[in-house]
Write a structure and sequence with these properties.
The chain contains twelve helices and seven strands. By secondary structure, the protein is α/β, with parallel strands linked by helices. It has a single domain, classed as Rossmann fold. Strands 3-4-2-5-1-6-7 form a seven-stranded mixed sheet, sandwiched between helices. α1 crosses α12. This is AAA family ATPase.
């Protein structure tokens, strides 16, 4: 594999509870199921992706994304956990201390938003996909994710009238980040908990298209299987591989492979 071939996808939206972690976790599982080597980087202080994918509790992990951002390259091998609950999915854990990491980066790093990008250079070519779960803010952690990524995807909760709250801020933020990372491509908005029969969902869909400018064709339906999978620390394909929501994530993985190639 050449250096160019690793696709790094930030899943970003500074609104909480819009399905970022769910998207990262199940997209990772489906990409791996299709034969790709996947790494998940958890940049969210809540560390929910780590709780789902990881074999250990994030508080027991010595080298997390927080240490990696502040430390030097030698920490990369310590941070990489290849054994997880998901086949062919590696993990760099998130940590509660990530909140403090932002302040330290501001004070200590010469280029605070490019620390992750520098660290990930070494991983290019080792993974087909690196998925980054961003925190619900547009501060330095999200900036680091976007500065390091080849692509960005914006999950939007379709059934909620607040689903689009602040999306224009994110789109404006992308144009700032492109000064550092001109290669960053927008994959589009991903509609979560979407039901085409509901008027509110149709309205959100049209509004998302006009605000973000691009929609992923695949939409993710509402399902209790998502919570079940999180409790069991399993991918959806391990919980109920024929469920509608699992098929949707499988379709999403295929669509993303087609879009990034």
């Amino acid at each position: 594999m050449t250096n160019k071939s690793t696709k790094i996808i930030a899943v970003a939206n500074h609104k909480g509870g819009c399905g970022k972690t769910t998207t990262v976790v199940h997209l990772a599982a489906e990409l791996a199921d299709l034969g790709h080597k996947v790494l998940v980087i958890d940049l969210d202080p809540q560390a929910n992706a780590s709780l789902h994918i990881g074999l250990r509790h994030p508080s027991e992990v010595e080298t997390t994304s927080a240490e990696l951002l502040l430390g030097d390259l030698s920490l990369l091998s310590d941070a990489l956990q290849e054994e997880t609950n998901f086949k062919n999915v590696s993990l760099i854990y998130g940590s509660l201390t990530l909140g403090k990491t932002e302040d330290q980066l501001k004070d200590d790093a010469p280029r605070p938003s490019e620390e992750l990008s520098n660290k990930l250079e070494l991983l290019k070519g080792l993974y087909d996909f690196i998925l980054i779960d961003c925190p619900p803010s547009l501060k330095l952690l999200t900036s680091n994710a976007l500065a390091a990524s080849t692509h960005v995807m914006v999950p939007i909760e379709s059934g909620s009238q607040y689903g689009l709250y602040g999306v224009t801020d994110l789109i404006n933020h992308l144009s700032k980040i492109r000064r550092v990372n001109p290669e960053l491509k927008l994959l589009g908005a991903l509609l979560i908990k979407h039901d085409e029969r509901q008027n509110v969902c149709k309205l959100i869909r049209d509004e998302a298209l006009s605000q973000v400018g691009e929609l992923l064709k695949t939409t993710i339906p509402m399902s209790t299987k998502v919570n079940q999978a999180a409790i069991l620390q399993q991918p959806l394909l391990g919980v109920d591989k024929n469920s509608k929501v699992r098929k949707a994530f499988q379709d999403l993985a295929k669509e993303i492979i087609n879009r990034v190639e």
